[in-house]
Design brief:
Number of helices: 3
Distance between the termini: 15 Å
Shape: elongated
Largest sheet: none
Mean pLDDT: 83
Low-confidence stretches: none
Helix content: over 70%
Length: about 80
């Protein structure tokens, strides 16, 4: 749906590294000989998320509220985000 696409774009804008990491790892075959995960790789992504998530959520909230004059529609999108 359009709401899902909007939410995905909004999340990608703020959490692209985390989303790319999860999608890449989720699509891998566990039995394959794919590259092993390193602590440094995960550590960087986790620290970035931990330091920015609150501010990013506030920015997303502002984006949705200003993009949608219909309050109920905006709230529905905010709920779909998570």
């Amino acid at each position: 749906s359009n709401t899902a696409l909007f939410v995905e774009e909004l999340l990608l804008e703020h959490f692209s590294d985390l989303i790319k990491f999860v999608k890449t790892r989720a699509s891998e075959d566990p039995g394959s000989s794919s590259e092993k995960l390193t602590i440094a790789e995960v550590d960087t992504i986790v620290k970035d998320f931990a330091s920015r998530w609150k501010a990013a959520i506030e920015l997303m909230h502002k984006d949705v509220i200003t993009s949608f004059s219909n309050f109920l529609c905006g709230m529905e999108i905010l709920r779909a985000r998570f």
